[in-house]
Amino acid sequence: MLRVSMQINKIEAGCDEAGRGCLAGPVFAAAVILPENFKHDELNDSKKLNENTRYKLREIIEKEALAYGVAMIDNHEIDKINILNASILAMHKALDKLKTKPEHIVIDGNRFKQYNQIVHTTVVKGDSKYANIAAASVLAKTYRDDFMNKIHEKYPRYGWKQNKGYPTVKHRRAIAEYGITPYHRKTFSLLPKQMEIFFDTLSSSTTNKIKLC
Asked: Is 32 inside a domain boundary?
């Protein structure tokens, strides 16, 4: 069972993001304030949960949380300010949406920037230690999955319904064959040189020039 929060007797928001390592799509972040008596045996780091459990937990979190917020930064802004800054900005925007002001913020990972003069603590693998961070990870992940499932309908060749924009072989094969979309992150290594060579050996029609669909 995860501890609900790091600080006892303080209003604490847990923060986490989803989508940092993706080649396409936005980065999402969530902030969650849970009641002190919150308990759920299945709540954990969203990456350790199956899809059905994540969505079941999302309903519970949104119903029982004292406050929560979800925000996103799109791929164009990611290219402008880099993924770390975009992830932190998304968390700040999620915190902006909280109806209750936290007295302390606990963040998954080891990097963050001061938010509204509120004391914060970063925790490596915090989504496996504190329920408020785990809850934020579930919201960020499921809302981002919803977004990627939606844009998959417009660009089905890239397999986003399955890979959610992460760098799978299928995703990179599609980039090699069809180019990139308006949702791809141009500053990321979309098709490393060694993979260009690999795909070139599979098809004489494969191009190593990435173009916009």
From this structure: yes
pLDDT in tens, 115-158: 999 999 999 999 999 999 999 999 999 999 999 999 999 999 99
Computed on alpha carbons and rounded to an integer, the radius of gyration of the chain in Å comes to 19
Task: Verify that 26 and 42 share a domain, yes or no.
Answer: yes
Q: At what angle do helices 193-202 and 169-178 cross, to 10 degrees?
A: 80
pLDDT at 198 over 90: no
Cα–Cα distance between 146 and 152 in angstroms, integer? 10
DSSP assignment of 105-141, as one string? EEEESS----BTTBEEEEETTGGGTBHHHHHHHHHHH
Using a cut of 0.85, tell me whether the model's pTM lies above it. Answer: yes
Using one digit for the tens of pLDDT, what is the confidence trace for 154-187?
999 999 999 999 999 999 999 999 999 999 999 9
Q: How many residues does the chain have?
A: 213
- 177 is in which domain, residue-wise? 156-202
In a domain, 3, yes or no: no
Count of domains forming the chain: 2
The reply to whether 83 and 18 lie within a common domain is yes
Residue 18 domain flag: yes
Residues 140 and 163 in one domain: no
| pLDDT given at position 193 | 63
CA dihedral 76, 78, 79, 82 (to 10 degrees): 170
Q: How far is CA 26 from CA 20, 85, 145, 152, 175, in A?
A: 8, 13, 10, 13, 18
